Amino acid sequence: MAIKDPFNTHAEALQKGDTHSAEKIFDHFSKPIYAFFMARIRHKETAQDLTQEVFLKVIKSIDQFNRESGNFTAWIWQITRNSAIDYFRLKKPTYLADLPNEGINITEERAKSDESSKVREIMDIVEKFSTEERELFELHFIADMSYTDLARVTNKTESALRVAIHRLRKKLIPYLNK
Amino acid sequence: MINFIKEQLVIRRLKKYFREYTQPDRAFLKSAKLRFVTIAEQKSDISIQAKHPRLWKYATVAIVAIFSMTSGMIVFADVNNVSATNPFYNFKRISEQIRIGLSSSTKQIELHQIFAHRRLEEVVKLEENNLEINKKDNQNNIDKPISSESKIRIDKLNKDFEDETEAGLDDVQDPKIKKEVRQKFCQDILDTIKKQPDNRRDHVADRVKIKCDEGGIDTKQEQGKQQEQKED
Fold first, then answer.
1. Rounded-to-integer distance, Cα A144 and Cα B19, Å
2. Distance (Å, rounded) from C-alpha A8 to C-alpha A62?
3. If DSSP codes are grouped into helix, strand and coil, which group holds residue B143?
4. Is A19 in CB contact (< 8 Å) with chain B?
5. Transmembrane residues, as ranges (chain A) (predicted)?
6. Do B33 and A26 make contact, defined as CB atoms within 8 angstroms?
7. At what angle do helices A158-176 and B2-21 cross, to 10 degrees?
8. Domains in chain B: boundaries
9. Mean pLDDT on B112-138
10. What band does A103 get if pLDDT is binned at 50, 70 and 90?
């Protein structure tokens, strides 16, 4: 059963150019979207660029969004995921070549922080998980998405997601306790 | 239970680490938000047509309706040759202007001739109307002169007749115009003036004679012939 999304109303207002709704949408989605890109790409400037790109795409294609049959949260997250896929498809060779330097820069920047080294360690572990598990990790643990929003985005039931996240947690705990 | 609490604490700590790591800059958020809201605002300006589709539809229908009605009135006024007192009279004059504008030089002479006839007919009708009104007023013992409005209208129609004739005369001066056409025009105008004799139109008749004689049309000879035919 489709879950009603309160952001559909804001999306409809945005189609008419309502700035108040634009602000609401930005305030709600900008931080988790940035966090999602940051976790995937691990590069601040690129994450910022991609976040901006997502919101530009939202404005560009908001007229195609159908309030009655659509779900805005799922829709904007689909744009976000597609942007990440497009980024890796187009930039993969360059990114891989640049990765060691970027990694050193990030490590240097955060060298004093145990927390950031821990983060990088966990991310390296998560990268070895399946795509579905990795996405769940990024959306739930990093983008701090609720089960309701996760259900909208992944088109799964909340109970199925609770089980999947419980399993993911069990998988992560041994690494976290190290 | 203790394990569960431990797990929760570890996960909470993990989320805290990540929150710290993935926290966007305030400056970035501010500028990105401003950009997003500005573009959204521009979108509202661009989509005025999309926002008011009914308004545009009604406006188009109204324009088409006004255009159809106006052209209908113009055609009606011209076909029925409405009198100068008719509310559609101005539409008839517009139609005449359009017809002159769209026709060839030979056809224009013919049209000037027709319209000059029309102006005189209109003058005559107006004068007749005034006479009838005066008669009625006299019967009712009302001493009423011709209204200044009618007088102005009659004078204007006489002037329009003169203008039509002048325009026709200018056209017949064109060397491309055949002699027969010129002759026909001049004779027709002179006949029309003769039918409706009035000293206000004498100078028009004189101008026609002068112009037509200049153009090689012997109006005197033509008039003589007509006189002879009448006498016979």
1. 9
2. 11
3. coil
4. yes
5. none
6. yes
7. 90
8. 57-102, 103-231
9. 79
10. very low
Contact check, Cβ <8 Å, A17/B28? no
Joined tokens for residue A3:
């879950």
Question: Quick one: DSSP state of residue A64?
Answer: G
**CB-CB neighbors (< 8 A) of A45 in chain B:** none
Structure-token pair, residue B210: 């002068």
* The pLDDT value given to residue A111: 45
Q: Which among B164, B155, B203, B158 is positioned nearest to B185, based on CA atoms?
A: B164
Each residue of A13-50: pLDDT tens digit?
888 888 899 999 999 999 999 999 988 888 889 999 99
Distance CA(A36)–CA(A31), nearest Å, equals: 9
Per-residue burial over B14-39, b if 16 or more Cβ lie within 10 Å, else e, is beebbbebbebeeebbeebbeebbeb
Interface test with B, best of A10, A14, A19, A46 (most B CBs within 10 A): A19
3-state secondary structure of A78: helix
Give the predicted TM-score (pTM) of the model. 0.51
Taking CB atoms and an 8 Å cutoff, what residues of chain B touch A22?
36-37, 40-41
Q: Are B17 and A118 in contact (CB under 8 A)?
A: yes
pLDDT of residue A29: 93
**Residue B24 to chain A, least CA–CA distance (Å):** 7
> So where are chain A's domains?
7-176
Whether the CB-CB separation of A117 and A107 falls below 8 Å is answered with yes
Give the span between the Cα atoms of A21 and B1, in whole angstroms: 44
Which H or E run includes B112? Answer: helix B105-139
Number of cross-chain residue pairs from A and B with Cβ atoms under 8 Å apart? 102
Contact between A53 and B36 under an 8 Å Cβ cutoff? The reply is no
**Least reliable range by pLDDT among A41-55, B3-17, B28-42, B66-80:** B3-17
Closest CB to A19: pick one of B17, B25, B37: B37
d(CA A137, CA B4): 19
Sign, CA dihedral A76-A79-A85-A88, equals negative
Q: Is A35 on the interface with B (CB under 8 A)?
A: yes
More confident position, A164 or B145: A164
